[in-house]
Design brief:
five-stranded antiparallel β-sheet, mainly beta, 8 strands, 9% helix, 1 helix, 38% strand, three-stranded antiparallel β-sheet
């Protein structure tokens, strides 16, 4: 099923780097719903709403979502059981 509003998370790599302070596209996440583990870049991005939603590429449950206001970014990552980020 093709969804014209769906992109991969590489489309929001700049937003993620701004929030985390570095590129997290290659970082590993685990979906709390189905247990799928994969790179953040494999998440499905929906960017046409009032905020941005990243969904699991397997079960399509929400892993992360955020909304930007003029002064803040509100991030909800409760759909990620964890994120594994390497140190340089």
């Amino acid at each position: 099923m093709d969804d014209p509003l769906m992109l991969d998370a590489n489309a929001v790599a700049g937003d993620l780097a701004e929030m985390f302070g570095f590129d997290v596209s290659g970082s590993v996440h685990r979906c709390t719903n189905c247990g799928n583990q994969g790179a953040v870049a494999t998440l499905l991005a929906y960017v046409h709403g009032p905020g941005t939603v990243l969904r699991c590429c397997i079960c399509h449950e929400i892993v992360m979502r955020w909304v930007r206001t003029p002064t803040r970014i509100y991030l909800d990552a409760r759909g990620a059981a964890y994120m594994e980020m390497g140190l340089s």
